[in-house]
């Protein structure tokens, strides 16, 4: 976060923040207590079996000009019992938006999500993964940017200048979900001589056409996924992230037909070793009010493909995912998602369970569990997680 | 159905001669729809109070925006303020006269817009006793009709009209509606499930007229006879012709709205 463009954007927005906080706006957000238990012995004696942590994500929001302009500030902080890297803070959002009839300016630190599939988010590339948060890759770091959106009959054209690169976060030596040897982000290396100051560019067109939602984009800049080289830190081997300059073209499509959702995400990337293509595609079918109850049951299946095979920077290169989603439609908004991603080339399986339920009016209890079974040594990304099965309970208070 | 409509409209003035119950039911629905046209756009605040059979209450706070679309169903945006864990969640709907509605749900934690299967008409809206099809825009073409009788309801003369959902995804075989003869407002609806058993009753209270034309109920009470659960909707702060355009009902505004 010490590059010049970011600092400029941040200081401008900081002034904006001070100016607006003085006047009316509203605060919301949550504070969450989390406990993660790992039933299996850790690979390293530095790691622990049980981790307690607390996180907070307040949000300040204010709009003016009849809602056409808004300012949002979302800091995030987590304090972890053991993992020094997971104890971290981030500015998730610090943005100003100005909307007009045919365009929008969105400037500052933002989160942008692209994609339609459930088991993997291939096309989603704007934000870096906050990998210390969870293994599912769904937590993202705030990305400084200037985003102009042209909004016309023929769709929305988004132009992005991503000013300042965010490096991926990695668990520390005492943390779980890490590689062996651990990653040393202090030695990170970049293909671009501008390193973290490289300005990445992206352009995306998207539109809804009847039952179809379509997005196509091109990204040119620093890869969010690093490759790794072996290095030395304090006389011990470490993995050193290397961030290539890449070009990536992606497409995401969803067709919504009755109770069927058909989904496809595909990318082609060059600049990171040989060019390659990857895709995730599948469906979700919802049985509404099963057995005359209020429960909706969704059946999900997706195929995950990456033509780099075993060289892929992902464990999912020829995998089939299956899932069941239960939405109870009760006053407590109880939800449950159970799934498995199965490698079609060996016996590796990643099982997952996510469930949540509101308690009282402002509390939410979430349970998450993952099991990594029969992970072969060749599966570099998952092999380090082979003994990291876990169950996590989180109690959050929303305000 | 769509093709029949112009024909039936021509028939309406002649209806007093030999009108079938089906024709009269449709004529009443068309007249009610005609009287509620031209409001252009509206915004409201809504409090939902869910009650289970033990009397335990749970509250939701919502804001809604809607606009009329010529020759199609309304567009609407529903913004959730409470419970706090769903704050910022918003639902964008393009309702259609006969085809399934288009619906996008915005999930603020992930900044993700999800197109959802709106064939899911019979699903519960926000865990309430209202199904999506009960809260979505009520277009004439979504039902076929049959006039049953005239009846007095709480001292008001009403038409009792039975209507049958056209969509195969509906959770109902039929609905019996009580429509007051003076203003063509819906006062009560009895819902019958797919097995034709009495399921729910909805009553509309505290009607107020806006812009000298549009009647809006400020209270809607839905009771589920099979489970004993109920939901009360309290509407307030109606505003009309606020200048909303289709740009306020697109995926960009869905991501921006609070």
N- to C-terminal separation of chain A? Answer: 29 Å
What global shape of chain A is seen?
globular
Give me the secondary-structure category of chain B: mainly beta
Q: Taking all residues together, what is the mean pLDDT of chain B? A: 91
Query: What is Rg of chain A?
Result: 21 Å
What is the level-2 CATH architecture name of chain B?
Clam
Number of strands of chain B: 13
What's the CATH class label of chain B?
A: Mainly Beta
| Fourth-tier CATH superfamily name of chain B | Lipoprotein localisation LolA/LolB/LppX
How many helices of chain B does DSSP assign? 4
Structural class of chain A: mainly beta
Q: What gyration radius of chain B follows from the Cα positions, in whole Å?
A: 18 Å
Uncertain stretches of chain A: none
> From N to C, what is the helix and strand string of chain B?
HHEEEEEEHEEEEEEEH
The CATH architecture designation of chain A is Beta Barrel
Q: Largest sheet of chain A at a glance?
A: 18 strands, antiparallel, barrel
Order of helices and strands of chain A: HEEEEEEEEEEEEEEEEEEEEHE
